[in-house]
Amino acid sequence: MSFVINRAIEWTRRSREPARSLRARAAQIRDRKPLVVVPSILGTRILDERGGVLWGSLPRLYFGPAIAHAPRATAAGTLDGFAVVPGLFRYDIYGGLLRYLAGVGGYTHDRDLYVLEYDWRESVSHGAARLAELVARVRAAGHRGGVDLLAISSGGLVARHFLAGTNEAIGRVVYVGTPHRGTFQAIAALHDGIQMVPLGRRFSAVELAACQTCWDSLPHPDEAVFVDDRGAALPDSLYDARTWRALRLGPPVEIEAYLERALGLHRALDAAPVHADSVVIGARHLPTLSKLPVVRGRAVLPPCSPRRGDPLARVLFEPGDSSLPARSLVGLPGLAAGAIRTVVVDEHRLLPSHGDVHRLAVEALLESAS
Fold first, then answer.
1. C-alpha span between 37 and 183 (Å, rounded)
2. What span, in angstroms and rounded, lies between the C-alpha atoms of 104 and 98?
């Protein structure tokens, strides 16, 4: 379905500089590497065993079964966006990015542009296994050279886990807003759930806790997450289930296995070889939560933005994109100083649909191809 307003906005962007220059550069490339886009958690539509939409339609933002429902569900296409006014306007997620890659970057779907479809509820390691299968299919289709990757948010962890265990020739990897050292927002979601749109339904902590990828996105085990009411660091381990219970943090479910798998993921990524040809794109201009205060023996989730006059604000917040601290964004082992590209966005979730991200991603991929 064509959305008139979206296409008009995109046409205007692509008709300006530097999109015209990028399109001209892309047209000169004769032997480009195929590109695989790796979406983040929530980035792929999920259908239940009867073909009903479990995740990926506008109504599911307001009502419907828990996203952990239907263990035999299947991935069913990239989440382009949510149709707000059918045929006229869609709230963009990945649609604009994919069209920019095609219209400006010169890629062609299913010829040299592929998107990973996977059940993001499972785990980062599950996504990495599906990525390995897709890359193998791309190579079998006749692409004998390397493959580039464009990984969004938690999709970057999927890409890194794949890289740690593959012998495939991988060219440039572009990470957009990837939590290389995890994100505090994973703690917040597992403690309080998330509401994705105003007046929408709250996705509960219990249903999110059934998604291993949420646990896989927790802050790195070496991060000192907990502080006391004066801002001093506390020794409590985020990866010890007893900590969660003692501080009354998170949902009242059995979490030992989830934490163990998440800890194993971080250690595996820490031990993985460095992939030198990497670029990071993200924002670091907004105050972003990174610490959790413990008051009277209980974890107290702070507000998302610093409160005026709060003496703990300088401890609890650091620069980032409102969800991902900049330290985590650039925490990729072996990242070159010149491989960091920054944008200005209102919040983390807008990165995949942001025009400057689209431009910087294509620039980074063309650099690798030239």
1. 22
2. 10
Strands (E) located in 202-309: 202-203, 226-227, 278-282, 286-289, 292-295, 298-299
| pTM of the predicted protein model | 0.95
- Choose among 41, 293, 345: nearest CA to 186: 41
Is 176 in contact with 352 (CB distance < 8 Å)?
Answer: yes
- Going along the chain, which residue ranges are E strands? 35-38, 44-47, 53-55, 74-78, 81-85, 89-92, 113-115, 147-152, 170-176, 194-195, 202-203, 226-227, 278-282, 286-289, 292-295, 298-299, 317-320, 340-342
CA 30, distance to chain mean position in Å, is: 31
| Per-run averaged pLDDT (10 residues), the chain, 370 residues | 70 78 90 94 93 92 86 89 81 92 94 96 96 94 86 98 91 97 96 90 93 97 95 96 96 94 97 95 96 95 90 94 97 94 95 96 88
In angstroms, rounded to a whole number, what is the distance separating the alpha carbons of residues 274 and 73?
Answer: 34
Burial of 282 (0-12, 13-18, 19+ CB in 10 A): buried
Cα gap 265→158, rounded to integer Å:
10
How many residues are listed for the chain in this entry?
Answer: 370
Domain ranges of the chain: 4-43+92-369
Roughly how many angstroms between the first and final C-alpha of the chain, as a whole number? 35
List the beta strands (DSSP E) in 209-330. Answer: 226-227, 278-282, 286-289, 292-295, 298-299, 317-320
| CATH fold of 4-43+92-369 | Rossmann fold (3.40.50)
**What tokens does 77 get?**
């296409």
Three-state secondary structure call for residue 88: coil
Cβ-proximal residues to 137 (8 Å cutoff; 6+ apart), any chain: none
Structure tokens of 275?
């992939």
pLDDT given for residue 118 in this prediction: 96
362's tokens: 């294509």
- The DSSP string of 274-296 is P-SSEEEEE---EEEE--EEEET
User: Does residue 130 contact residue 12 with C-beta atoms inside 8 Å?
Assistant: no
Question: Which tokens go with 44?
Answer: 């792929």
